[in-house]
Structures are given as structure tokens and as C-alpha cells.
């Protein structure tokens, strides 16, 4: 008995010694760099935890990414950025936004054409009478399209945000809620495509339909979204056969209650499968997802369906391949790390300005090196027209590349340098 106890104690001592030596080796600078390249973590203990997570992931089925299958809309410049040009009242400020986007090296502008700002007062009414004198609601958007052309940039136009008149409940149903009649949305989408035929090619129908509040105060409904997608896609293609339809970007979430409880969200992976089950594949040319890193960096290679990190688009890709849709690419609609100061709630994670500046070039490097099935990745975001988000201590403010007064943040400079030295042209 004593001999068995002695042998057990020796075994445990050996294991502890080996573990201590392993920790010592991992704590050395060369090892720390390798750990960061695998886990996206900067501190040692999270790095070690991340390494064990990666090891555990080896026990799960291998993802089928089929990189050789993609046939269109992937071999493009990946450099895109979200802008809010419709909120800039002054034309010269709009021009400056687009010019600074182009100077940073971006080739794509993801810009919303809010339905409520174009068909303002009623169906087929494109006059904006919120001002004196009244004006065409198209004027602002004509200017945005012209600016993109002037600076040799392509637009990804997001169509969403219905006017209150399109719902019997008005905005009581939620200002982002879908219209009562999807035919109204189709008519609007067709009107936009007809007006800009030959000038705009890429249309994204809706944004984050799997989370609250982007589907309003209703329960999340993948099948209803597919019906809206179908109506919009058919109308756009009828107006412009060369148009490319981008699906509404799915937000990464592990919530399972959204389809039964209003005010909740629903897993992006389950939402996408139900989209396919409802026949969505015919109604989009490009799949879209969000690409936020949240609490770990872009080199985080951990893969677990209930863990949200920068690698999550791979799960979306695997689902597409499993549903026979691997010829289509994924585009990232929004991508960044949040540099909120210490007195602002870190709702989206928190990094320093220096970490944010380092992360986005690394994200693009991973996309270019490892994900040939991913096309455009749009940074969230270039700038807002006002500092309202900052005044209200909203963490959303700190994804910015430029302050509202156009002051460049460190991440603007780092991306500009990266794209100039390593970027590819379309």
C-alpha cells in the first residue's frame, strides 16, 4: 500500500514538474508570439486556455470549406468601409468622407439607402417635404453615387429601414420592422435599381435579420425574411439583370429564443439553415455575415459553435457547402475591434487604440491568406456626421476610423499603410 502511494506521489510530482516546465517554455517571448498567432490573446493565461480550446476542437468534425468551389464575386479587392453619407448635411463633407476613404485605400463603400429617407411620405412619393422648399428625395443619393464614381469606388447599397407608412402599427412595431406588404419593399427596391442601373451593381437586402431590433418588435422569422429577400431580389433583377444580390448580414449570436420570444435574437447558424430550407439559395448571389472580433484578436483559431470570435465565418461557409451552395462567396458587412475608453461600457469587447490599429491589418492578412472564399470585408466604420454616440457614452462610437471632425484615429493610419504596402487592387 505504501509503495502504491509512493508511486502515485512520484507520478503527480512528475506531471507537475512537466507542467511547470511547459508553462515556463510557453512564457518565453518566442512562444508567446506563437501563442498569440493561434489564440488571438495577449496575456499568458488566456493564451494557454486558448491552446487547450484549440486542442479540444480537434475532436469535433472537420469543417468543409471547399475553397476551390467558389466561382464568382470572391476575387475582388477585399478593402471596404461602412459610411453614413446620407447623414452628412453638407455636400462638401460628403465629398471629404469619400475622398478620405479613397485615400486610405478602400475600394468599396457600404452605404445604406434608407427606404424611409427616399419614399418618405407614401408609396411612389419620392418628394421630400420635410424641408422648405420641398426637394427630390433622390438628390442626396444621386450625389452619393456620383461621388463614388468620381473616386473610382464601388457601392454596396443596403436597402432597409422601412418608412412608418409601410406598417399599420407605424413605428410602434419598431422602426426597423419589415413592412406589412413585402410588395411595397419590392417596388422600392426595383425603383432604386431602375434609377441607378449601370451605376450601382451590388444591393444588400436588409441587415442582421436574425437579431433584435433589426427585425423590429416581432419574433425572428427566417422564413419571412426569405419571402422579403425573394420579393426584393426579383424586383431588382427585373430592373437590372446585371445586379448582384447580397443577403442581409447575419449577426453572430448563440441565442436560441428569438423565433419564439419577441425582443430576442436567433443563432446565425440555425437562421441560415432555415433560410436554405425555405429556398433562399435562388434569391442571393453573395452570403453576408458580420466579422467582429469582440474579446480576442484576428488570429484566434478556436472554433466552437457557441464561441463568437473572428473565425466564425468559417461555420457559415461550412453550412453553405453542406447545402450545395459553395460556389457563392461570403462578404463581411462589418468588421472591427472596439476601442472604447475605460469609462464606457465594453459591450463589444475592449482593446486599446494601438491594438485596434494592429488588429485590422492582421484581419485582412488572414482573409487574404486563409479564406479564398471570402471577398469584400467592410470595416465598421469610417465616421459619423455628429458626436452623438460619444455624448451618450455609446461604445458604438469607438469603432470609428475618423472622429466626427475628420481627425484620423491610429487605425486609419495603420490601414492606410497596410493597404498601400500589401494591398491588392481589384
Structure characterization notes:
- The chain has helices at 2-27, 29-39, 44-57, 91-104, 139-150, 182-195, 222-239, 268-277, 313-322, 353-370, 388-391, 410-422; strands spanning 79-83, 108-112, 127-128, 135-136, 154-159, 202-207, 244-249, 287-290, 330-335, 374-379.
- The protein contains 12 helices and 10 strands.
- The strands form 2 sheets. An 8-stranded parallel β-sheet has the order 7-6-5-2-1-10-9-8, with helices on one face. Strands 3-4 form a two-stranded antiparallel ribbon.
- By secondary structure, it is α/β, with parallel strands linked by helices.
- The chain starts with a helix and ends with a helix.
- Strand 5 (154-159), helix 6 (182-195) and strand 6 form a beta-alpha-beta unit.
- The model is unreliable at 11-19 (pLDDT under 50).
Distance between the termini: 74 Å
What's the Cα radius of gyration? Answer: 24 Å
Order of helices and strands, N to C? HHHEHEEEHEHEHEHEHEHEHH
What spatial form do the alpha-carbon principal axes imply? Answer: globular
Unreliable runs:
11-19
Structural class: alpha/beta
Task: Profile the largest sheet.
Answer: 8 strands, parallel
Mean pLDDT: 92
How much of the sequence lies in strands comes to: 5-15%
Strands, total number: 10
Widest beta sheet: strand line-up:
7-6-5-2-1-10-9-8
How many helical stretches? Answer: 12
Helix content: 25-40%
